[in-house]
């Protein structure tokens, strides 16, 4: 990814993140989160993680944030905007942000830096040797393309199969939990 | 080309923003959104590490992206349950202001 694209997407992401905190209206905050996640998905795609970028758009901006906006509209929170801002939490938040940022810059300035390793067509063709020659991954790699979804699927179903099933159970439990929680309790 | 530290800096800044938002906002829905920001910031570091520390065959390390996949799924489940709790809370108390939820205060 070219450098200017990285900085544009990062700026979009960070401005979205800042706007979430700055806006008084919850709907504006929710839409800022959407802007932030779109920038983040762009960064993922720039890092050649196409599957994760698409998941970020589909799951986060598509499903999760729509759910947030839906709940905000359901609760009808108009009077929240007029509430007076106490000074102490704002000061605490700003101090926390500054301390964290200084710490981060301190650590990063002393940790070894890395430039992105080569991911050109030549590397991809070479990497095809580590997969069975007739497999879909190997044929796509030998064409000089990165079969991102196939690689993730390969890792998911060969190395993380148990975790995937646990995740399925978690989603089932969450679904049942939501139904139980949303049911109107008998008085 | 952006280096690994650039990505980690941006990801850390987003995390710090989420953390500051959790501390300074009083609206519980916005606190929840800021939690999502923090999870996404962690995801950005994971993807950056997967790209900058390739597997032995030279491809990005898919284990990092796997972890992102799991985080996204768990976050989706967490949002569903959390928002259901917020709706139940609103039904019981008619408020989602964290200052007014003081029944656990001694």
Question: Helices and strands of chain B, in N-to-C order?
Answer: HHH
* Helix content percent band of chain A: over 70%
Beta-sheet strand percentage of chain A?
under 5%
- In CATH, what is the class of the largest domain in chain A? Mainly Alpha
Mean pLDDT across residues of chain A: 88
Provide a count of the helices of chain A: 8
Q: What kind of sheet is the major sheet of chain A?
A: none
Cα shape of chain B: elongated
Portion in helices of chain B: over 70%
Task: Explain this structure.
- The complex is a heterodimer of chains A (187) and B (106).
- By secondary structure, chain A is mainly α.
- Chain A folds into two domains: 1-78, Up-down Bundle (Four Helix Bundle (Hemerythrin (Met), subunit A)), CATH 1.20.120.1200; 119-187, no CATH class.
- Chain A has eight helices and no strands.
- Chain B has three helices and no strands.
- With 106 residues, chain B is mainly alpha-helical.
- Chain B has a single domain, classed as Helix Hairpins (Orthogonal Bundle), CATH 1.10.287.
- In chain B, 47% of the residues are buried.
- The radius of gyration of chain B is 18 Å and the shape is elongated.
- Chains A and B meet through helix 1, helix 2, helix 3, helix 4 and helix 5 of A and helix 1, helix 2 and helix 3 of B.
């Amino acid at each position: 990814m070219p450098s200017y694209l990285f900085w544009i997407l990062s700026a979009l992401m960070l401005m979205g993140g800042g706007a979430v905190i700055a806006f008084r209206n919850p709907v504006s905050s929710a839409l800022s989160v959407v802007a932030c996640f779109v920038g983040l998905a762009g960064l993922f795609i720039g890092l050649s993680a196409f599957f994760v970028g698409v998941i970020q758009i589909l799951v986060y901006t598509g499903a999760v944030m729509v759910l947030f906006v839906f709940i905000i509209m359901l609760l009808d929170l108009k009077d929240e905007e007029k509430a007076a801002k106490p000074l102490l939490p704002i000061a605490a938040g700003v101090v926390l942000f500054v301390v964290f940022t200084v710490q981060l810059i301190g650590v990063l300035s002393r940790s070894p830096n890395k430039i992105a390793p080569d991911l050109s067509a030549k590397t991809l063709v070479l990497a095809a040797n580590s997969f069975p020659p007739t497999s879909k991954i190997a044929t796509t790699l030998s064409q000089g393309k990165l079969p991102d979804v196939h690689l993730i699927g390969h890792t998911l179903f060969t190395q993380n199969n148990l975790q995937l099933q646990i995740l399925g159970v978690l989603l089932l439990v969450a679904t049942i939990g939501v139904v139980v929680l949303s049911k109107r309790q008998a008085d | 080309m952006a280096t690994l530290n650039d990505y980690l800096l941006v990801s850390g800044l987003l995390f710090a923003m989420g953390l500051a938002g959790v501390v300074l906002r009083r609206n519980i829905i916005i606190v929840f959104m800021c939690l999502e920001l923090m999870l996404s910031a962690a995801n950005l570091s994971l993807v950056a590490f997967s790209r900058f520390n390739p597997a032995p065959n030279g491809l990005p390390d898919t284990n990092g992206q796997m972890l992102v996949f799991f985080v996204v799924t768990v976050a989706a489940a967490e949002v569903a349950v959390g928002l259901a709790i917020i709706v139940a809370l609103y039904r019981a108390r008619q408020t989602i202001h964290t200052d007014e939820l003081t029944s656990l205060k001694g």
